[in-house]
Structure formats: C-alpha cells, structure tokens
Amino acid sequence: MTKMLYLFVAVAFMACQERSSQQEKKEELKEGVEKIRQDVKETAADAEDYLQAQRDELREDLEQRKKEIDLKMEELKKDGSEKSKKARTRLGKLRTEIDAKLTDLKNSSAATWDSTRKEVDTLLKKSDREWTEFKEDFKELFR
User: Fold this and answer.
1) Are 101 and 125 in contact (CB under 8 A)?
2) Which parts of the chain are coiled coil (predicted)?
3) Do the Cβ atoms of 90 and 134 come closer than 8 Å?
4) 102, 63 in Cβ contact below 8 A?
5) pTM tops 0.85, yes or no
C-alpha cells in the first residue's frame, strides 16, 4: 500500500512538473506574440511616417508650382494685351489641374498611394514641360 502511495505521489509530482513546463511554454509563446504585435505596430507607424513625408514633399512641390503660376498670372493681369489673356487662360488650366491633384493627394490613402504618386509625378513633369513651352511662346511677357 505504501508503495502505491509513493507511486501515486510520484505520478502526481510528474504531472505537476509537466503542467508548469507547459505553463512556461505558454508564457514564452505569449511573450513572443506580444513582441511580434509590437514590431508590427512599429513597422506600421514607420510606414505611415514615410508615407506622410512623401505626401508632404509632393504637396510642397505642387504648392510651389501653384505659387509660381499665381505670381505670373498676377503680372499678366497688369498687361492687358491679347497675348497676356491667352497666357493667363493657359496658366489657369494648369493651375486647375494642380488644384485637383492637391485635393487627390490630401485624400489619398495608403492603398491608393502608388497610383496617386504616379499621377502627381506625371502632372509635375507635364507642368514643367508646359511652363517651359509657355516661356518660349510668350518670351516678350517675360522681361
């Protein structure tokens, strides 16, 4: 009978050891999951910061281009010639496109970022081209 009691105590002790070992493994697993969760949060925050920095850079470029156009349009208002009116009309169309892209840029999400970025880059290249052509076409207005 005492042998049975010792055997029972030994089995119970081993069962308790197994439970504490399993508990330790569960704790390690929970810690690992928490670390992964924290890393994902940090990565998401870094990605959002990067996206916001790119968005700000493009917004600044577009706003700078818009200011240049506004300044030139103000100068052209002083000159009442027909050529000046044509130039203002052309610049007004370009300014409208820039305003639309600024709105798109402000409302873009991470999911639509790539396409918005491409569209803004295309518009900036187009506006560079048009600005150069504009200067060539209206040389006399750029004294």
Assistant:
1) no
2) 19-79
3) yes
4) yes
5) no
pLDDT above 70: residue 8: no
The parent domain of residue 30 ranges over: 2-141
* Euclidean distance between CA atoms 45 and 33, whole angstroms: 18
Helix segments in the chain, DSSP class H: 2-78, 82-107, 113-137
What was the pLDDT predicted at 121?
82
Taking the C-alpha atoms of residue 121 and residue 24, their distance in angstroms, rounded to an integer, is: 54
Report how many domains make up the chain. 1
> Amino acid identity of 106?
K
**Angle, vertex CA 124, rays to CA 98 and CA 91, nearest 5:** 50
| Residue of 19, 16, 14 whose CA lies nearest to 6 | 14
Place of tokens 């103000």: 74
| Residues belonging to the chain | 143
Amino acid at 96: T
* Burial (Cβ within 10 Å: 0-12, 13-18, ≥19) of residue 49: exposed
